């Protein structure tokens, strides 16, 4: 560190000035390199290198040891385009994102708003609301596996009290994805709630007070003050929830293993299954590349339309 | 703001819905095998046998400790690496900054599962199987973290940087004396996120560990279940409770700090 | 104040970092401590050869296995077995695939029966026939049916270990309640259908109890196919060469799908998904009166059900002589290219596992079969069987199996994938897809996987 400090003293020139001497220009490059070095090394080893390998493998059929054995060009991709089960996978993934992201955010926002009231004992509720943050995927999924149990699970037993026919949560293809979504939303709530509550508390009280003096309604304040002021936090949490939704794995593995009738075979799970159970690294890699482009598109869209609306204080 | 007689019942209902699964798991952990399969919700008689069995079959405390070490190391490593990178992108104008930044961000889209096998082979070559290094170092660099912090650092006025340089503050001092404190909110948020994601990992720890020395709790829970032979759900639930109690305790105790971290430090 | 706070954070960081490295070294310390402690137990000279054993036995199974391993380690001074849990069979195989042939590979590897072909083709393992020949070891003492499965091309590649077969489990009280003979388990398809119809009880539009159910798992389909003498794939079930075509979508397979479809349409079949524990809970809570389970689940069903439990053979079509069942479970593989003394230790341990005493313990504690029939003569097992006479049925079914390619079981390297295809076919069937169409879909999926496997195999 000492060296860096000394060098910086030499280059005490405001960065914005155009007429930089050659030495200080390279100085900036060198410092940047130094600061970025840990990231660059780690990314190269653990992200780019495997990614190139994935791209490479996607043009091959692999043998039982997972080594590339036969170059097939785009055959893996052609197969995916025709494969009905891959279509199902994409559909399930998109539906899953659609089910979980908005509901997770709206639920957590609702909880954050009611927990933001200054009431007696509100701390207890805040703690309870954030409690699912301490639950790991493995632990939560095991619990929900039991709650969803067709014959002895608590949910169906509660339903039977109200004389509603038992629902085959994880067995019926039309319910399974919903069940996985419920579990996911539940697990998301704690963290999302906490972040949004933090965001709400950062909003200046005076804004609300002056609005109240003007006689603004609750919904007006919500629309005009809360949401805009919360937008950076919302943007952050939406990005996280989206990426996590696309990469959901643990719940599926424990609750349904992609079934019934492939209705919960989300892409990441499908990749896992193709690579780790069927030993088809070629097809798995091709799927990974498709998923990559999916997330890329969604992220670009989100940044394009989302970030404009974000209101920085 | 809202009438408190509306808020209190709402708070109550929501809390019950949210914590019911946890309570349910707790009840099941107190039942014996037959009772569970009859589908009781509340235990008729209380037995602690499941807890004894859970401790007996899997070294859960050791696993918890490992999980804690791994998650904490990843959190810290990630914060250091990401904040350094984010700082560079905001305050150091270097050639090709935008290109490099874009390349960084693109790694956010790569699903981890897709890179798992090559990564496993790398870890094996490095001799990091069954070590904390294998469990932590691959997660130190996080594009998302860099991105988040960059967004926050951008709010810091460039004049501040110039002023600090005029005042003779070195770049690095400016970084840890001004930039970091001012961005506390983001750092805490990112830290919490990193800690949780690491805590939740299952497949990777299973791959890179083959004995109990550095295994994490998620594997422990799986280990309590069986495939063909009947799983003893009471024991599994006892394991689940044992695993979540420290996490919940940590959360309850640290909640005030976390809250503070999330609210203070933003620039007005 | 802020300054102080930050120096604390930095200090903390430094501390944690040093704590981490300390922790690792401490761990290494405890590791060596542990091992030296282990070495002190049961040995005087303290230089036992370590033999690493990877397995997938979770929960209660792990406890039993660990205690057997301990027993072995204390019984002699030469070898020390280190048993390590590696997740499910699939997860363990994933890992093995990456470390196979390197120093990180275990000496003994446990793999499920459908991985047999894959393991042989991988070339990572020494056929145990080598060791059998070396010392003229007597393998004929093993259960015949088990020998039939694991003997490939006249050679033993792996040592059979935990073994099970499917059985029909039924609720005797419910049988009496609806006027069926509780001591006579239904055997043919029409008996099953009829019994299921009687046993189903509907209340309004809610079915309180289903007559019959089967776990949505490829294994049961394979068994129902084998008992009809039906082959899963060509080349004598893949035993006389690499299979190329699927046969399970022929008439035998269609019979099974038609049976299930018929009962499902009639509302007498309950679908409880693909989780072993779910279907068992359904039976034990009285939601289903008959279901197919693994022989290893029998004792648990008897113990946990609040009613009398009967056990029968698996069903077969009318007017047909049943051929029996295929063995399921897992076997132990011995790594190639490792130190000879380690191999000897592994082989020694495998032989130890086969002794009637150990098999008796294993059978009684876990419910898996004893692979050595002599174990059934042990007092421990006799007591158990007189306590649970139903267990005898499982042994009878296994021993009355006729040896032929169908009951030997199929050998294909892509079996795990094929099982998934069958599961999807069953799920589609329950959702109303036509039986033949569902089967054909699974057959096409399996054939594609086999084709790729054969294509890439020939490239080497």
TrEMBL record, chain A:
PANTHER family: ABC TRANSPORTER PERMEASE PROTEIN (PTHR30193), INNER MEMBRANE ABC TRANSPORTER PERMEASE PROTEIN YCJO (PTHR30193:SF37). GO terms for biological process: transmembrane transport. This is Sugar ABC transporter permease. It is a multi-pass membrane protein. Gene3D superfamilies: MetI-like (1.10.3720.10). Its main location: membrane. Keywords: Cell membrane, Membrane, Transmembrane, Transmembrane helix, Transport. It is found in: Cell membrane. Belongs to the binding-protein-dependent transport system permease family. The chain crosses the membrane at residues 32-52, 94-115, 127-147, 175-197, 227-246, 284-303. The lineage of its organism: Bacteria, Bacillati, Bacillota, Bacilli, Bacillales. It holds the Pfam family BPD_transp_1. Residues 90-302 form the ABC transmembrane type-1 domain. InterPro entries: ABC_transporter_permease, MetI-like, MetI-like_sf. The keyword Lyase does not apply.
Automatic annotation (TrEMBL), chain B:
It is a multi-pass membrane protein. It is found in: Cell membrane. This is Carbohydrate ABC transporter permease. Keywords: Cell membrane, Membrane, Transmembrane, Transmembrane helix, Transport. InterPro entries: MetI-like, MetI-like_sf. Belongs to the binding-protein-dependent transport system permease family. It comes from the Bacteria. GO terms for cellular component: plasma membrane. Its main location: membrane.
């Amino acid at each position: 560190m000492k060296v860096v400090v000394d060098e910086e003293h030499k280059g005490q020139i405001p960065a914005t000035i155009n007429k930089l001497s050659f030495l200080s220009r390279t100085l900036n490059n060198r410092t940047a390199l130094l600061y970025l070095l840990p990231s660059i090394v780690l990314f190269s080893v653990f992200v780019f290198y495997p990614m190139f390998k994935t791209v490479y493998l996607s043009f091959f059929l692999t043998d039982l040891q997972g080594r590339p054995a036969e170059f097939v060009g785009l055959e893996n991709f052609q197969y995916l385009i025709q494969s009905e089960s891959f279509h199902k996978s994409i559909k399930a993934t998109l539906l899953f994102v659609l089910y979980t992201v908005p509901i997770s955010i709206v639920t957590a926002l609702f909880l954050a708003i009611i927990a933001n009231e200054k009431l007696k004992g509100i701390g207890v509720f805040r703690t309870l609301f954030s409690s699912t943050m301490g639950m790991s995927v493995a632990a939560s999924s095991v619990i929900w596996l039991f709650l969803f149990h067709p014959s002895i699970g608590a949910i169906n037993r509660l339903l039977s009290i109200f004389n509603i026919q038992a629902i085959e949560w994880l067995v019926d293809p039309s319910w399974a994805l919903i069940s996985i979504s419920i579990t996911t939303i539940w697990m998301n709530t704690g963290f999302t709630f906490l972040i949004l509550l933090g965001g709400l508390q950062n909003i200046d009280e005076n804004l609300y007070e002056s609005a109240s003096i003007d006689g603004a309604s609750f919904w007006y304040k919500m629309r005009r003050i809360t949401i805009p002021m919360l937008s950076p936090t919302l943007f952050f949490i939406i990005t996280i929830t989206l990426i996590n939704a696309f990469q959901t794995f643990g719940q599926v593995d424990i609750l349904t293993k992609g079934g019934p009738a492939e209705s919960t075979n989300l892409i990441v799970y499908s990749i896992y299954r193709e690579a780790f159970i069927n030993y088809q690294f070629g097809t798995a890699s091709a799927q990974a590349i498709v998923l990559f482009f999916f997330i890329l598109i969604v992220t670009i869209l989100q940044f394009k339309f989302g970030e404009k609306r974000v209101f920085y204080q | 703001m809202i009438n408190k007689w509306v808020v209190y019942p709402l708070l109550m209902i929501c809390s019950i819905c949210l914590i019911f699964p946890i309570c349910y798991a707790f009840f099941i952990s107190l039942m014996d095998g037959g009772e569970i399969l009859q589908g009781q919700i509340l235990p008729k008689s209380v037995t602690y046998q499941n807890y004894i069995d859970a401790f007996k079959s899997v070294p859960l405390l050791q696993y918890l400790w490992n999980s804690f070490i791994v998650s904490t190391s990843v959190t810290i490593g990630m914060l250091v690496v990401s904040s350094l990178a984010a700082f560079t992108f905001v305050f150091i104008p270097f050639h090709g900054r935008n290109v490099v930044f874009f390349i960084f961000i693109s790694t956010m889209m790569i699903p981890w599962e897709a890179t798992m096998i090559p990564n496993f082979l790398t870890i094996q070559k490095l001799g990091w199987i069954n070590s904390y290094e294998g469990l932590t170092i691959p997660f130190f660099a996080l594009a998302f973290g860099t991105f988040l912090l960059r967004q926050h650092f951008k709010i810091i006025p460039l004049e501040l940087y110039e002023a600090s340089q005029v005042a003779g503050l070195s770049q690095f001092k400016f970084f840890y004396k001004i930039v970091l404190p001012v961005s506390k909110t983001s750092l805490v948020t990112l830290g919490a996120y990193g800690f949780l994601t690491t805590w939740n990992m299952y497949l990777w720890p299973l791959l890179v560990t083959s004995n109990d020395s550095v295994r994490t709790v998620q594997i422990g829970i799986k280990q309590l279940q069986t495939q063909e032979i009947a799983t003893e759900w009471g024991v599994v639930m006892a394991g689940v409770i044992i695993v979540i109690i420290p996490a919940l305790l940590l959360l309850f105790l640290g909640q005030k700090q976390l809250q503070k971290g999330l609210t203070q430090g933003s620039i007005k | 104040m802020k300054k102080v706070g930050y120096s604390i954070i930095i200090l903390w960081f430094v501390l944690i970092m040093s704590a981490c490295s300390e922790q690792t070294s401490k761990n290494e310390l405890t590791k060596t401590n542990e091992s030296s402690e282990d070495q002190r137990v049961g040995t005087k000279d303290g230089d036992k050869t370590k033999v690493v054993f990877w397995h997938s036995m979770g929960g209660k199974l792990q406890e039993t296995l660990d205690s057997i391993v301990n027993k072995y380690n204390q019984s002699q001074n030469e070898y020390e077995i280190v048993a390590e849990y590696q997740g499910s069979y699939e997860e363990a195989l994933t890992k093995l695939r990456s470390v196979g042939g390197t120093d990180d590979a275990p000496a003994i590897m446990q793999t499920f029966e459908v991985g047999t072909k894959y393991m042989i083709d991988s070339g990572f393992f020494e056929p145990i026939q080598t060791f059998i020949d070396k010392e003229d070891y007597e393998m004929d003492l093993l259960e015949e049916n088990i020998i039939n499965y694991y003997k490939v091309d006249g050679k033993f590649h792996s040592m059979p270990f935990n073994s099970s077969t499917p059985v029909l489990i039924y609720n005797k009280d419910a049988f009496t309640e609806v006027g069926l003979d509780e001591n006579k388990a239904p055997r043919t398809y029409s008996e099953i259908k009829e019994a299921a119809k009687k046993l189903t009880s509907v209340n309004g539009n809610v079915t309180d109890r289903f007559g019959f159910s089967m776990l949505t798992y490829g294994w049961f389909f394979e068994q129902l196919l084998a008992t009809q003498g039906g082959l899963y794939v060509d080349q004598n079930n893949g035993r006389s060469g690499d299979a190329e075509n699927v046969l399970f979508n022929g008439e035998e397979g269609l019979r099974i799908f038609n049976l299930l479809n018929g009962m499902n349409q009639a509302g007498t079949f309950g679908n409880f998904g693909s989780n072993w524990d779910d279907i068992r809970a359904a039976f034990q809570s009285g939601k289903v009166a008959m279901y197919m389970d693994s022989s290893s689940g029998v004792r648990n069903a008897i113990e946990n059900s609040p009613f009398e439990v009967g056990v029968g053979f698996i069903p077969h079509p009318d007017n047909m002589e049943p051929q029996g069942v295929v063995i399921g479970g897992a076997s132990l593989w011995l790594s190639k290219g490792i130190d000879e003394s380690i191999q000897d230790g592994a082989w020694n341990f495998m032989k130890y596992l086969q002794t009637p005493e150990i098999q008796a313990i294993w059978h009684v504690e876990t419910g898996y079969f004893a692979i050595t029939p002599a174990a059934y003569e042990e007092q421990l097992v006799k007591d158990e069987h007189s306590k649970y006479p139903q267990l005898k049925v499982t042994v009878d079914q296994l021993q009355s199996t006729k040896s032929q390619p169908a009951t030997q079981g199929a050998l294909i390297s892509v079996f795990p994938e094929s099982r998934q295809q069958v599961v999807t076919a069953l799920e589609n069937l329950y959702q109303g897809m036509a039986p033949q169409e569902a089967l054909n879909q699974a057959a096409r999926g399996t054939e594609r996987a086999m084709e790729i496997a054969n294509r890439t195999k020939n490239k080497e």
